[in-house]
Amino acid sequence: MKKLFSIFFLSLFISNLSSAQELDFLSRSSFKAGEKITYKLKYGFFTAAEATIQVLPTDIKFDNKPTYHLMVDGSTSGSFDVFYKVRNRYDSYIDQKDFTPYLYTENVREDKYTRNDKARFYQDQKKVVASKGTFKSPVTQTFDLVSAYYFARNLDLTGAKIGDKFSVNYFLDDEITPLTIQYVGKETIRTSLGKIACLKFSPSIRPGRIFKRESKLYLWISDDANRIPVRAKAEVLVGSIILEINTAEGLKSTLKKL
């Protein structure tokens, strides 16, 4: 379970990205301040954890440019909270026009494991200055755990074809790494909010303490103007975990339901 939130939510947030040295994005934002979405993480029949992602109002500027304040927090629940307590929070400040990050911070508490870190992004200089040093990036679009997801929501995927593979560079655990995602197709998902038409993706995952070598991760993103994560399912060393949307409020566009 160690670092479960970091690995699982990272794959979730960057599931709908396009391949290129520099990724094209829409001129308008698909989200606004006040948006708040909650999820339940299920292991078998049990709800193991809950998560919230939201856009908070802020007057903070970087390089005299306005930003969005993005925040994600996750915590274990029920009996899981008794045996393995998780209290994680991730914050990111991104540019309101090109959606790339300026500053990322994380406060991780997973049982006895703790991590407090921050990273300052200098996109034009292709570098990230973090607590443990300076890291060079091959592109001028490098993302963190949270900003990658919100950037992805502003990409135009109308031309995507089944089997297409996409990639993005992200910074996590003092390393800049590319992630590859394959577009699987369209599928309708039944949720607590109703039936939602989705785009389905399958990101590559690294085998290790959580994932097996042959494990698969699938993600469903709403096929509308919001482009929000609806469901994620991953095979782990024992069984599988499922992340499902629970509530959504403050969306910029009405969520399209069938």
From TrEMBL:
Domain of life according to the entry: Bacteria
Signal peptide region: 1-20
Gene Ontology molecular-function annotations: exonuclease activity; helicase activity
Keyword Plastid: no
Entries under InterPro entries matching the protein: DUF3108 (IPR021457)
Coiled coil: none
Name of protein: ATP-dependent exodnase (Exonuclease V) alpha subunit-helicase superfamily I member
Pfam families: DUF3108
Entry keyword set: ATP-binding, Exonuclease, Helicase, Hydrolase, Nuclease, Nucleotide-binding, Signal
